Amino acid sequence: MNKDELLKIYSAYLPYGLQISTDDEGQDWVETVIGVNNEALETSVGNYWDFTVKPILYDLSYLTKEIEHEGERFIPIRKIYEINGWEWSDDEVNEIDEIGICSDLDILTYATAQLLLSWHFNIFSLPESEYINKATLTQKQ
Fold this sequence. Notes:
Layout: H1 3-13, E1 19-24, E2 27-36, E3 41-43, E4 47-48, E5 54-57, E6 67-69, E7 72-74, H2 76-84, H3 110-118, E8 132-133
Parallel strand pairs: 5-8
Antiparallel strand pairs: 1-2, 1-5, 2-3, 3-4, 6-7
């Protein structure tokens, strides 16, 4: 992906505290993006000009698995059903197909997209090499 495409993607997450992983002087750092312009990603620590950073996002396969967001643990697809007033059934009505997409969510609404962005899901189909899976990230203390 080129720089302009990455800027558009990163900008969508900006209101939701997108975290990035950086390799600065041989150490891995996790920082929150506070701004994006046509030249750099801005963090509270500094600017990143070369876009060698990677966003920290959940893979869409985690829609059906328990995640933690802002101290709350939940299964995202069930939360989406709850918010929309839909009834969840573990057995037949709301089965998740083999690619991890709920059969009842044929159209990604604006509200659902905003939820997925706020929970830091990779809704733009970034390749695995372009982001760090938040569910498997272990931070060094």
